[in-house]
């Protein structure tokens, strides 16, 4: 793994440039902070590209003040305990498209194109 951090605790500095792009290369950021910022910025930009207020469903938003919340998490969500039984032991791709991978003892490899497979063609 590239860094061992708690992404909920690690903070970084960012800014937007004149083209309204999120920039993470603040002089006070460490390499770790810059990498985390780039991943967060990529997620935010990708999410913004597909987001539509027309499809917002308040019943799926769990908040103590939301009386309309009705998601049956037990019936429709993946069990997080089962999902994380396999430990991620490698990283694949380049920032900001980098992601953790469980290689299953070397069964899976990270390919030059950023995909994960049993072998690279």
Task: Describe this protein's structure.
The strands form three sheets. A two-stranded antiparallel sheet has the order 1-2. It has a two-stranded antiparallel ribbon with strand order 3-4. The chain has a two-stranded antiparallel ribbon with strand order 5-6. It has three helices and six strands; from the N terminus they run E-E-H-H-H-E-E-E-E. It has 121 residues and is α+β, with helices and mostly antiparallel strands. Helix content is 23%, strand content 12%. It folds into two domains: 1-56, no CATH class; 76-121, no CATH class.
State the domain count: 2
Quote the average pLDDT: 85
Poorly predicted sequence stretches spanning 5 or more consecutive residues = none
- Separate helix tally: 3
The main sheet comes to: 2 strands, antiparallel
Using the alpha-carbon principal axes, give the shape: extended
Strand content: 5-15%
Determine the N-to-C terminus distance: 24 Å
Order of strands in the sheet with the most strands?
Answer: 1-2
Q: How many extended strands?
A: 6
- What is the string of SSEs from the N terminus onward? EEHHHEEEE
Q: How would you concisely characterize the structure shown here?
A:
This protein has 121 residues and is of the alpha+beta class. It folds into 2 domains: 1-56, no CATH class; 76-121, no CATH class. 23% of the residues lie in helices and 12% in strands.
Secondary-structure map with pairings?
Layout: E1 15-16, E2 22-23, H1 31-50, H2 73-76, H3 80-83, E3 90-92, E4 99-101, E5 109-110, E6 116-117
Antiparallel strand pairs: 1-2, 3-4, 5-6
């Amino acid at each position: 793994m590239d860094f061992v951090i708690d992404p909920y605790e690690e903070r970084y500095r960012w800014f937007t440039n004149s083209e309204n792009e999120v920039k993470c290369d603040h002089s006070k950021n460490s390499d770790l902070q810059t990498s985390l910022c780039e991943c967060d910025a990529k997620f935010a930009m990708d999410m913004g590209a597909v987001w539509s207020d027309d499809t917002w469903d308040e019943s799926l938003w769990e908040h103590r003040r939301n009386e309309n919340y009705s998601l049956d998490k037990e019936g429709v969500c993946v069990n997080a305990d089962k999902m994380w039984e396999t430990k991620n032991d490698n990283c694949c791709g380049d920032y900001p498209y980098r992601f953790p991978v469980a290689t299953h003892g070397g069964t899976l490899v990270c390919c030059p194109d950023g995909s994960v497979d049993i072998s690279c063609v």
